[in-house]
Amino acid sequence: MEVIKNIYFCYKQTQMLKVYIKKIFLFCRLLPIVEKVNFQRAKLINLKKNRNFSFENPTIILPPDYYMYETFALDYHKIYYGGLETAEWVTNHFKNHFEFKNKKILDWGCGSGRIIRHISTFIDNSNSIIGTDYNLKYTTWCKENI
Predict the structure, then answer these.
(1) What burial class does residue 93 get, using C-beta atoms within 10 Å of its C-beta: 0-12 exposed, 13-18 middle, 19+ buried?
(2) From the centroid of its chain, how far is CA 40?
(3) In this predicted model, what pLDDT tens digit does every residue of 88-127 receive, in sequence order?
(4) In which band, very low, low, confident or very high, does the pLDDT at 55 lie, cut at 50, 70 and 90?
(5) How confident is the model at residue 8 (pLDDT cuts 50, 70, 90)?
(6) Could you give the CA distance from residue 101 to residue 20 in angstroms, rounded to a whole number?
(7) What is the pLDDT averaged over residues 52-61?
(8) How close are the terminal C-alpha atoms of the chain, in Å?
């Protein structure tokens, strides 16, 4: 039990340190630069996997890389298939409580559509699905592409 407490303590300390460092970058007005560097790093780390995904799935339209980076991750496979798994889990969870017939479904904080794009796969066409997000560029992209 003591080991678990020590691991948890180290985790909390790391999280607090990340917040502290982020505040320093923000205060020095360096946070946008740091975010751009992290974005490019994420692109490089996932480059091969994402190219393979795009080659194997040419018909799947994904949001711009930076939208995915800001909202979830920059791994196309995790974005698409993770969103599919989550949409299935969510709809199955709610099917235990009511029938999806003539319902209005709201995805509050839909981001770039990782989950909302798949919900219609698991319910019938009598339902309407609405996504909302504080960031207009995400909802605009979803409206135009999903």
Answers:
(1) exposed
(2) 18
(3) 999 999 999 999 899 999 999 999 999 999 999 999 999 9
(4) very high
(5) low
(6) 48
(7) 97
(8) 48
Amino acid at 54: S
Residues 6 or more apart whose CB falls under 8 angstroms from that of 76 comprise: 46, 49, 50, 53, 54, 62, 68
- Residues present in the chain in total: 146
3-state secondary structure the chain: CHHHHHHHHHHHHHHHHHHHHHHHHHHCCCHHHHHHHHHHHHHHHHHHHHHHHHHHCCCCCCCCHHHHHHHCCCCHHHHHHHHHHHHHHHHHHHHCCCCCCCCEEEEECCCCCCCHHHHCCCCCCCCEEEEECCCHHHHHHHHHHC
Residue 105 forms beta bridges with which residues? 129
Flag whether pLDDT at 31 surpasses 90.
no
Q: Which residues pair with 70 in a beta bridge?
A: none
